Amino acid sequence: MSLIYLLDLCAVAVCAITATLEAQRRELDLFGVTVIAVIAGIGGGTLRDILLGRLPVYWINDPIYVVVGITAAMLTFFIRRKINIPRNFFLLPDAVGLALFTVIGTSIAMNMQVNWFIAALMGVVTGVFGGVIRDILCNEVPLIFRTDIYATAALAGALLLITLDSLGMDHHLAVIVAMGTIILGRLAAIRWHIHLPRFHRHEQ
Amino acid sequence: MSLIYLLDLCAVAVCAITATLEAQRRELDLFGVTVIAVIAGIGGGTLRDILLGRLPVYWINDPIYVVVGITAAMLTFFIRRKINIPRNFFLLPDAVGLALFTVIGTSIAMNMQVNWFIAALMGVVTGVFGGVIRDILCNEVPLIFRTDIYATAALAGALLLITLDSLGMDHHLAVIVAMGTIILGRLAAIRWHIHLPRFHRHEQ
Amino acid sequence: MSLIYLLDLCAVAVCAITATLEAQRRELDLFGVTVIAVIAGIGGGTLRDILLGRLPVYWINDPIYVVVGITAAMLTFFIRRKINIPRNFFLLPDAVGLALFTVIGTSIAMNMQVNWFIAALMGVVTGVFGGVIRDILCNEVPLIFRTDIYATAALAGALLLITLDSLGMDHHLAVIVAMGTIILGRLAAIRWHIHLPRFHRHEQ
Question: What is the DSSP string of B52-74?
Answer without folding.
Answer: HT--S-TTTS-THHHHHHHHHHH
